[in-house]
Amino acid sequence: MGNSYAGQLKTTRFEEVLHNSIEASLRSNNLVPRPIFSQLYLEAEQKLNSLEGGSRVDNEEEEEEGEGGLETSSPPNPYQLLPAPEGCCTTDGFCQAGKDLRLVSISSEPIDVPTGFLLVGAKAPSLPEHLLVCAVDKRFLPDDNGHNALLGFSGNCVGCGKKGFCYFTEFSNHINLKLTTQPKKQKHLKYYLVRNAQGALTKGPLICWKGSEFRSRQNSASTCSSSLFPPLESAGAAAALPSEPVLGATSGLPVGAPQAGPACDQALVTAAAAPAVFNGKGSPKHQQPAKNSLLALPRPSALGVLSNSGPPKKRHKGWSPESPSAPDGTCPPGGGHRAKSEGAGMSCVAPAGLGGPASVTLPVVASGEPVSVPDNLLTICKAKPVIFKGHGTFPYLCGNLNDVVVSPLLHACYQNSQSVSRAYEQYGASVQPISEEMQLLLTVYYLVQLAADQVPLMEDLEQIFLRSWRESHLTEIRQYQQAPPPPYAPGPGMVAPVTSAQLPWLAGLAASSCNDSVHVIECASSLAEGLAEMFRLLIEGKLAKTNYVVIICACRNATIDSCIAVTGKYQARILSESLLSPAEYQREVHYELVTGQVDSLGAFFSTFCPEGDIDLLLDKFHQENQGHISSSLTVSSVTNAAALDVSGAPVCTSYHLEPRGVGPFQLAVAQKLLSHVCSIADSSTQNLDLGSFEKVDFLICIPPSEVTYQQTVFHVWHSGVLLELGLEKEPMTKQRVEQYVLKLDAEAQTKFKAFVQNSFQNPHTLFVLIHDHAHWDLVSSAVHNLYSQSDPTVGLVDRLLNCREVKEAPNIVTLHVTSFPYALQTQHTLISPYNEIHWPVSYSNGVDLYQESKKYFGLSEFIESTLSGHSLPLLRYDSSFEAMVTALGKRFPRLHSAVIRTFVLVQHYAAAMMAVSGLPQMKNHTSVETLEITQNLLNSPKQCPCGHGFMVLLRVPCSPLAAVAYERLAHVRARLALEEHFEIILGSPSSGITVGKHFVKQLKMWQKIEDAEWRPQTYLELEGLPCILIFSGIDPHGESLPRSLRYCDLRLINSSCLVRTALEQELGLAAYFVSSEMPLEKGARNEALESDGEKLSSTDNEDEEPGAEGEGGPECVFEAGSPSEKRSPARRERSRSHDSASSSLSSRASGSVLGGSEPLAHPGPPLGEQAASPTPCGPVEDSRMLGERQGPRVSQGAPAAAVSGHSPGPPPPPSQRSLQVAVTPSSSSSPTGPPLPPMAGPLLPQAPPCAMTKASRQPPVVFLPKLVYDMVLATDSSGLPKAASLLPAPSVMWTSSFRPLLSKTMTSTEQSLYYRQWTVPRPSHMDYGSRAEGRPDGFHPRRLLLSGPPQIGKTGAYLQFLSILSRMLIRLTEVDVYDEEEINIDLQEESDWCYLQLTDPWPDLELFRKIPFDYVIHDPKYEDASLICSHHQSVKSEDRGMSRKPEDLYVRRQTARMRLSKYAAYNTYHHCEQCHQYMGFHPRYQLYESTLHAFAFSYSMLGEEIQLHFIIPKSKEHHFVFSQPGGQLESMRLPLVTDKSHECIKSPTFTPTTGRHEHGLFNLYHAMDGASHLHVLVVKEYEMAIYKKYWPNHIMLVLPSIFNSAGVGAAHFLIKELSYHNLELERSRQEELGIKPQDIWPFIVISDDSCVMWNAVDVDCVGERGRDFSWSERSVSLKHIMQHIEASPNITHYALIGLRKWASKTRQSQVREPFSHCHVHDFIILNVDLTQNVQYNQNRFTCDDVDFNLRLHSAGLLLCRFNRFSVMKKQIAVGGHRSFHITSKVSDSSVAIVPAQYICAPDSKHTFLAAPAQLLLEKFLQYHSPRFFPLSLKNRSHPVLSVDCYLNLGSQISVCYVSSRPHSLNASCSELKFSGLLLYLCDSFVGASFLKKFHFLKGATLCVICQDRNSLRQTVVRLELEDEWQFRLRDEFQTANAKEDRPLFFLTGRHI
Fold first, then answer.
1. Is 590 within 8 Å of 960 (Cβ atoms)?
2. Phi, psi of 1394 (to 5 degrees)
3. What is the C-alpha separation between 608 and 614, in angstroms, rounded?
4. In terms of Cα–Cα distance, which of 1771, 1769, 1541 is closest to 1655?
5. For the chain, how far is it from start to end, CA to CA, in angstroms?
6. Is 698 helix (H, G, I), strand (E, B) or coil?
């Protein structure tokens, strides 16, 4: 406004001010009127706001957008700046004198400020990040309240000191603001500047150019105290950011709070989603209506919250103006919120708004005189016109602003559509946006085709614009999508553009066909003229038939100004109410109730009744009937044919409470949740270390609903999860269970802090934080910071669940659970799409995936019921109710429609109760639907011997209205004496359930509850209670309803404010499980499935309902009648008749099938419904649910009736099935006679049907408002319900109108990805700032989302998940270890005397030498191995047991499940903080950084040099010696025998492994207790890469490629040879350092890759002689064992040291001797120095350790087993010796190879095998050696003599091992006669003389094995074998190898 009126008085302006001053003083309460001249000269915003109300706010914001860089593709006319004087400085941030004005530059400089002046900061569009310092006379600035600023300007330049600028235009030129719009101080002077403590100038508070708009509202609404309506919606639905102060109703609220940061969207943005108005009928075919969400903000908006004023001066199309609704004297003072809600639908054109200046919006002025709104507009029009701003500038409105609503939504829609082409800018060419003229013309076309009961929807328009634009640019779009862009911009489309001159004519032409529904007004000069004309026509009543007025001004500068007014009463009311947020809606209703505005409505109703006031009629009825109330409605009379219990009381066989079990779906979902948690743990991100957790704890957070709280506590208590998790013990108390459920109310923080503290204190417990009903309260905690005083619960979810402690705790997993996940699926969500779990589909390709006893009936099934052609659908609307509401809406235009709807519905219920109770004349004052509900409610208890009835849910979202409804209905019930017939319950989230004593007694009797204090606390406990539940609260909070719910009356839901979440959660109340166990013949079942095939496939999508995967398809109920009885699809038309006959059609079973239209003459209860309730857990039938549907509405006067479903057993014949029962008018209108007796006959074996029977078979009937009904049933071109395309949630907005539409075939996962791409959170959403937290992807690693349809069983699923998670954690901390007793204990010689003391820690060398060697193998893994005989054993002749089958060997080995100790070895799946570094995550070394080193040494036996490769990670190089220079690997460092370090293990550990890169236990960090150790994995060359990948920080020893097919013997051989060679190198290296060779540590450890834990036995001597003792075993670290053994005295004299194999049944005798001289296996400590001359056999695959032990002993070396230490071996099912598979070389041979085929005759045609010859030999001998040694079978007295080697000949043959080496120790064999001789690759030490020492049985057999046939013959000759042995040619064999595989050859012979 600047200098608009400075220094001059225009006559008209003066007269206007004078006139208004006089008028104001006449109306004012003040005695002294304000002076005219001060009023004239004061800031125009204050004065004009009282004239024009809030409508001027919007114009200012139109211009603001230019600042934020939000230019549209059609730029505004730039403001013509005066050229700067020649030679002046024009640099941004400097004045024309060249002095710097930027705050950052001059903040610390002294500035001369004259008295009365203030320093302020100005914003320049060209320097958005800087403030320019100016000195301004404070008289021209507003005061703290935004008032009293003089018009004009006075300022000085602080740079050059120039003073006396009287015009802001001049001043802005001087400081080089370079504006594109007219300079205005309100827009560009932003902040006061203040000095901080250091004296520097800093940005201070905002200059408040605002406040008058709220002030005028406050004054006009002074009739009500503002304290009743705090500025923040307590429901948490609306929210603001800290940078957006919100003004409440109180005028004293500070306005100028500092603002900073990016431009933000509106505060209280939930209103943004409010205007959800839907068209049910769809648009004409040429313009399909958009199905995208309504009124969404397509982009983040840069609007502020504060309502601004100022006369608009010019049009600026770059901005969406915001407008408040006009203040209404009858509105609550919270009306200011309406302004916010209307503006919330606006959006900026591009995301650049996020980077623009702060969101303070300064006044914008427009030219033109204000338009006066007529005073009596609302009285005449019966609705407030809603004016949508379109293009260009909108004029002021003044006068009666209460009676109009101005909205910027259309303007925003136009702007969005103009930004569409940005999506194609990437292609390098500028595609022209749709023109303004075309937009307006398409809008007119759209309005013309709307039906009378439809409401315009911005999304429809957006899609129309989008489609039009796409069609006009189709060629270009295809060109861009398929090929590189052309070098030139494509020209416009072929269609000639509409010019502004043509526009009015074309619009008028379009409107001419619509019967005056759309009226076009063309203005010559400005929109003001057109608006004035429209108001005139409205007052004159000439627009009575007109719903929309289009005003076009197309004269100015070839551009257009436009606006569209909605004047249709129906449309205007819905649109104006849709601009209210839910909280504002509640406040407005509350205001109307407390101010008594509804009294007129009550007075109007009292005129309805023909006999006067209804209350008088009720009183009269009460007096007449007092004392003799009809007994016909009482339950006791219905006892005929009822079953009786023992006491004679009637029993209902239909009543049963559902058994609580876990269904297949819930189990499947729980397992999916578990697998997602495991995948988080398995990922390489180390975000969850499942292995470190020992137990599970949890906390379930729920909305603040008492019923939901009790319901969840009940679930947790009865699921048994607390016992299973070990959190509680029996008996549990309710108080203990309540510790695990958190109600998110004001007291929640204390409990939550305790939970977080608990998680800190228990790092080894995994805490699962379950956020149930997670779509509720997603308000950012920033809002709480602003308004914590008004409502402490605002933003509570964000403050608790998103707090830093929860996000960073490594042991907290957050699980969000919701039926409506959309608000958690935005671009900024914290939940990764990979962490979403959707409820699974029940059907796939017609196959029932999960056999459930009940079928889910959700939204898609309800919709299906309306389309199926059956009789009455389950979704309905009430036409007579809607008609009455519409009529009353015209009569009471100032009342909110929710008030009217509630009063009408309550009146209908009251009239229906009276009609049913004996006042039939009241039938004409209710609707057919309400009468049906009431009749069935009252009649249902009569049909059951116990009085079971059903529930009617009456949804009244607004709590004050719910209270009114409750009081009224309770009053009517009392007057009609129906208090004991049905209960009325007021269900409020904040309070529990109150039920009368009579009904509590009934419930206790039905549920067999003994507790005298019991009261129902959940709705589920009201099962079978006849009642009306008045369910209040803006949103349901997850309350479950009982199966006796029969009617879901949603006629009062706020139909104008719906988004997808709100709509689906209302309809979710009716979601239901229907029994699917109805007996049905197979034929009928198949037919049913066949006929429903299309439905199954067509509904396998998830668009109708969140996660509708779970619904799978319509659990459709089929007609019970025969095909001939099926009727043509009934038209869903509502009968308007109110006569008694038609009202009685609401029969007892509202959902039953109508067999024929004529009632039969046999009255009685419905047949077949007396079936006993189906068993809940029986097998599920294939059929879909066979249930009942209500018949079609019968024409007036034809009474309808209930009809049977199937009774158990075969279905009755068609003639009987079509039987109907007529409800006579007399029985329904005068309930005095007793119920008619049931028809006798075989069909009635049981009690009359109970309401519960029907309830289990059919879902409830749902009544909807007409608007919602049409919208739910409307579909788009793809068949997708329109409801699915709405804005998904109020707290999000669309990113762009240029988005694809949802598809009908989308799965839940695809829908999630769609929303993640196309929605962003509003600033009030808790995820709004999540991308600023520094994570690259923005996802929280330990956060999951479970979504599934409402009431489907998600609570049971996540409780089951907790159970199986706990079981898995326990399983992760357990391991299966071999638990087998030692074998051949009976063959052990009991020593008569003790060699060693019981408590000796180490063996005494001299004593140990005296202990004889025990040849017998005791390791249970060698149970199938040949027994080794020695002279120490007492020779026994008994046979050993039968050997096991080879395939059983592994399967049948006994294992025990053991808890992992803290000293266990782990595989690659273990992650924990401690061994992070050990596994390769060392900060100093890059991951996987390692080097490959070759290491060669010669070995004479192999005849060649052996080349090995070491892979050495950088972190392990200190264990090795490298040459300097060159870096060649020289040796592996070895310690000294004398080293005594406690923190290191001296012996290097070698672990040979194959096939176990994942499962091998190579992580020895914990086993070694953190001690330093050297661990080398010995791997085959072909497995090197995979082992290196899994174990990047381990040293690898890679065997040469020739050993790729070798067995474990080769690995052992090379380990030992390498170690000895390394010992020699180290001795020579350290000898140079002065160390003796014998001081180098000579031991190595060779460990199996399955050694998992180690134990020590503690012995306590108790006897006198020290031979009696007690002992216990404990888990110890490998470090403890190794250091103990390494500290043994004289240790270097032992060649081999080992441990006992652990077994749970270890005998005392096995640990009595602390040390044994025997075989050792699995984990050995080998002295490579002493064993230099004894080698492992590198060819061996099995028993190589036994072979090596025997050769060591025969060489005179000591083998010591420490019996007090044991090793546990884990059962690993993969790799190891099982990785060798023997197959045929003929690839196509699929025949299994058996061991008998492993050998063949030489030169035969035998199939050769692909396996090493040695493996074939060993396997053949193991299974078929009796073929070679028949005399040896089970002949232990005469074993086979085996020379220099031990080969396993099977368990039934014993062997005697002898060594041919000179001086070797051998068992005494002088007395033995051998049954066979085995010579295996014998060397030169075996001579003929050596063999002659042994004696053989006659017929004993010989087997000689050699490398080739030639050496076989030479051996026979050299050993003179033919002297004593007889050979035959046919006794020569070979292994079944090809020649190139070098087979082994055998020769067998018999002893002569």
1. yes
2. -95, 130
3. 8
4. 1769
5. 132
6. strand
Query: For 859, phi and psi rounded to 5 degrees?
Result: -60, -45
Count CA atoms closer than 13 A to 1543's CA, side-chain side.
1
Length of the chain: 1952
Lowest-pLDDT choice from 233-237, 655-659, 1820-1824: 233-237
Q: H or E element: which one contains 605?
A: helix 599-606
Query: Which tokens sit at 639?
Result: 């006892």
Residue 625, judged by CB atoms within 10 A of its CB (0-12, 13-18, 19+), counts as: middle
CA 334 to CA 248: how far, in whole Å? 7
Burial class (CB in 10 A: 0-12, 13-18, 19+), 732: middle
- Read off the tokens for 1299: 């988005």
Q: What is the pLDDT of residues 172-203, one digit of tens each?
A: 889 988 877 778 887 788 888 888 877 888 88
How much is the pLDDT for 491? Answer: 41
Residue pair 243/261 in contact by the 8 Å Cβ criterion = yes
970-to-301, 980, 1334 alpha-carbon distances in Å:
48, 12, 58
Q: Do you find a cis peptide bond into 1525, omega within 30 degrees of 0?
A: yes
Q: Whose CA is closest to 1142, among 931, 876, 917?
A: 931
Per the confidence metrics, is the pTM higher than 0.70?
A: no
Question: Contact at 8 Å (CB) between 904 and 1265?
Answer: no
At 513 the pLDDT is 85
The two three-digit tokens of residue 1187, written as one number: 């249930």
Report the half-sphere exposure of 1615 (CA within 13 A, side-chain side).
28
How deeply is 1674 buried, as exposed, middle or buried, from its count of CB atoms within 10 A (0-12, 13-18, 19+)?
Answer: exposed
Cα separation, 1363 vs 725, in Å, equals 7
| Residue 964 to residue 970: CA distance in whole angstroms | 10
The tokens for 231 are: 């500025």
What is the distance between the alpha carbons of residues 671 and 662, in angstroms, rounded to a whole number? 12
User: Phi/psi at 1879 (nearest 5 deg)?
Assistant: -115, 110
Long-range contacts of 531-535 (CB under 8 A, 24+ apart): 531/371, 531/387, 531/395, 531/397, 531/563, 531/565, 532/371, 532/372, 534/565, 534/567, 535/371, 535/372, 535/373, 535/374, 535/377
DSSP reduced 3-state for 549:
strand
Q: Number of H helices and number of E strands within the chain?
A: 54, 58
CA distance 863 to 574: 24
Smallest CA-to-CA distance from 1296 within 603, 678, 466 is with 466
By C-alpha distance, which of 1677, 1878, 1651, 1650 is closest to 1777? 1650
Angle, helices 959-975/614-625, rounded to nearest 10 degrees: 40
Handedness of CA 306, 311, 314, 320 (dihedral sign): positive
SS3 1379: coil
Alpha-carbon distance values, 1035 to 83, 1063, 1260 (Å):
60, 10, 20
Tokens of 71: 């230019």
CA trace torsion 1740, 1765, 1769, 1390 (10° rounding): 70
| 14 within 8 A of 5, measured Cβ to Cβ | no
- Measured between alpha carbons, how far is 167 from 1006 in angstroms, rounded to an integer? 86
Distance CA(644)–CA(1023), nearest Å, equals: 21
What's the mean pLDDT in 1590-1595? 93
Closest CA to 905 of 989, 1028, 992: 1028
8 Å CB contact between 551 and 534: yes
pLDDT in tens, 133-145: 999 998 888 887 7
